[in-house]
Amino acid sequence: MSQYTFITTPIYYTNGAPHIGHAYTTILADAMKKIEQMKGNTPLLSTGTDEHGQKNQHSCEKIGKPIDVFLEEQSALFKNLFNRLNIDYDFFVRTSAASHKTIVSRILQNLYDRGLIIKKNYEGLYCEGCEQFKKKCDLDENGLCPDHQVKPKVISEENYFFRLEPYRQWLKEYITNNPDWITPRNYAKEVLSMLEEPLEDLCISRPKSRVWLGIELPFDKNFVTYIWFDALINYISTLDWENNEKFEEIWKNSYHLLAKDILKPHCVYWPIMLKAIGIPPVHRCIVHGYWIGEGGIKMSKSLGNVVDPNEVIDSIGTDALRFYLLNNMNSTGDAPISISLLLQGYRILANGLGNLQMRALKILDKNLNGIIPAEVELTNDDKKLLQDISDSFKSIYAQDLSLSMVNELTNQITNACSLVNGYFSSEEPWILAKDPSKSNRFKQVLKTTLEALSLIATAAYPIMPKISKEVLNSLNIPTENIITDFNIEKLKSEKIKVPEPLFPPLEKKVLEN
Ligand code: ME8
Is 130 a catalytic residue? Predict the structure, then answer.
């Protein structure tokens, strides 16, 4: 039976242009949406931009544009990139939208009226990059924020606070009783260790004298809402939770995707906020590591070591970028990225999938007038090769959504391409073609290869949507509604043409310089 699956990405800060890290989480979300669609479910994907807080404010002040213009332009950079990346999002949240602001205000007023928000003075170390107060133990040996490599400022001010401690025990038990709530599990352990010590009250306001870009507190006009309290609510405001009669049905199968930098807000603050609001936690948090850029540190806008996804798309195309990212980030940690690694990834695709398609279709065209020999009976060994490939894809698609599931899918695509390329080479169809007595074997080899190609292209749809459709179209398989059909021997005796190469040789362009 079809069910909703709600998949979210973080909403990204608009203080700079999007980079590979932003592209990755959004591509991962899109791949998951496509997997759910292929399974016949009804996935909804939400992404967007986080448009308040000091970081955005400072960037806007530096550029000197009116705030609305600045936010509109910055947000458009993300939308444009996501369009180029073939991201099929259903919602694009902008926290500056009136509908979001109203919901945040209503939640704040409700918590305030119930005595869950209190006012007091606070002095602490503040990292603007994280938009968070830090404890000494959060900093590195030089007293710097490990993610932003800056010394946090000492800030003392009156603010409003939301008490987290009363919920700590509940959250600990929830995580212990739901070991897959945060995946991979090592991040659940990290969160449990954050819950060993009493939780400090969460400062949920910023005085307007310091931060003017934010949602005004409904009960005190001298303050704006702390950006995280505002941003996390996007996950329910985007569904218009109070007025949406399907909210529960959608929420019960919801997935938050995020990198480990924002584990605490998502896995400590957010479930507690939801508990106080009266909503159960998200179904699952899927956490990934960092893309490590040149210099061996986390790629980030503030550090200036970013790979520009638009440049990469110009050079190797969207699908090769999607494949590289989904194939190289696995559940065990961080992953390296550089232009030369991306180019290497492109060549692997060209030699694998690209080569497989081209050699099979060219020989078909040359010897059988381009007509697929669908009528030929395959040997048991040929059938077994196809069945093994089919079973491997079926078993991956049967898994629940996770980082490792998507990663395994990319590995299986690569493995299947090598397997079938190996089969093709060892059967030597170009020699069989010359010997009329071997005509049956020649047809069997071609049919097996093309059937395998159709399985690989179907499985690859969530990872490389455009390439997948190109391959399926080249085999005359309809692509309006690609489903998890891994039955073997589906091709018809139809005439097909040799298409343009999927991964043409790269010109020596911008990227390599
Ligand atoms: O944190 N490696 O926004 P943000 C992997 N607005 N992923 C990366 C990455 C890297 N080097 N850099 C960024 C915020 N990402 C808040 C979120 S949500 C309610 C509010 C990805 O622009 C990754 O998904 O700093 C990470 O969690 C997110 O971008 C942070 O984006």
Answer: yes
Q: Whose CA is nearest to atom 18 of ligand 1?
A: 10
Measured from the CB, is residue 236 less than 6 Å from ligand 1?
no
**Per residue in 251-308, pLDDT tens?**
999 999 999 999 999 999 999 999 999 999 999 999 999 999 877 777 766 676 778 9
The helix or strand, by DSSP H or E, that contains position 207, with its residue range, turns out to be: strand 205-207
**pLDDT per residue as tens digits for the range 308-328:** 999 999 999 999 999 999 999
CB-CB neighbours of 149 under 10 Å: 15
**How far does the centroid of ligand 1 lie from the alpha carbon of residue 24, in Å?**
10
Q: Whose CA is nearest to atom 26 of ligand 1?
A: 259
Ligand 1 pocket member 92 (CB < 6 A):
no
Cα 411 to the center of its chain, rounded Å: 17
- Write down the pTM of the prediction: 0.94
Catalytic residue among 60, 127, 285, 417: 127
**Which residues neighbour 246 within 8 Å (Cβ) at sequence distance 6 or greater?**
4
Pairing of strands 12-13, 42-50: parallel
Integer angstrom CA distances of residue 205 from 78, 104, 217, 304: 27, 13, 8, 30
C-alpha distance from residue 290 to each of 14, 50, 268, 497 (Å): 19, 20, 20, 43
* Residue 36 contacts residue 79 (beta carbons within 8 Å): no
* Angle, alpha carbons 154-157-158 (nearest 5°): 155
Ligand 1 centroid – CA 10 distance (Å): 6
Count of CB atoms situated within 10 Å of the CB of 140? 10
Residue 13, CA atoms < 13 Å, CB-side half-sphere: 22
Q: Which atom of ligand 1 is nearest to the CA of 259?
A: 27
C-alpha 435/C-alpha 430 separation (Å) is 10
Q: How far is CA 381 from CA 167, 415, 417, 422, 445, in A?
A: 59, 18, 17, 14, 11
Q: What is the pLDDT of residues 42-95, one digit of tens each?
A: 999 999 999 999 889 999 999 999 999 999 999 999 999 999 999 999 999 999
52 is catalytic: no
Pairing state between β 254-259 and 284-288: parallel
Ligand 1 centroid from CA 432, angstroms? 54
Segment 403-447, tens digit of pLDDT: 999 999 999 999 999 999 999 999 999 999 999 999 999 999 999
CA quadruple 169, 171, 172, 174: dihedral sign: positive
For the Cβ of 22 lying below 6 angstroms from any atom of ligand 1, the answer is yes
